[in-house]
Specification:
Largest sheet: 2 strands, antiparallel
Radius of gyration: 17 Å
Structural class: alpha+beta
Number of helices: 3
Strand content: 5-15%
Length: 100
């Protein structure tokens, strides 16, 4: 992934972020094993799109856990925010101060 050293500053030094899947890295830990956690048990948040979706009425909180709203028909909606404008959570927070 192409990134900048300081994610808040697009003019900072450009770098490449290397990622290793946990499935590949698990062999480095003696006795470790993996478990499968279905998407129904968590809502992944990697970008501001995901966070906004989680905060929307597409999800409900049940026992302090996000659960897809039944009105979505079993499939989470998709959304696409401007990735330059909403690269960091602070910009999303500022834009949604009055609610979503």
């Amino acid at each position: 992934n192409k990134k900048t050293v300081d994610p808040k500053d697009d003019s900072s030094q450009k770098v490449l972020q290397l990622e290793t899947a946990m499935g590949a890295a698990i062999e480095c830990f003696k006795g470790a094993s993996a478990i499968v956690v279905p998407r129904t048990r968590f809502a992944p948040v990697k970008k501001c799109n995901d966070l906004l979706l989680l905060r929307s009425d597409a999800y409900l909180l049940e026992n302090n856990k996000p659960v897809l709203n039944p009105e979505c028909g079993g499939k989470a909606p998709t959304m696409a925010l401007d990735s330059k404008k909403y690269k960091l959570v602070g910009a999303l927070e500022e834009a949604t101060t009055g609610g979503i």
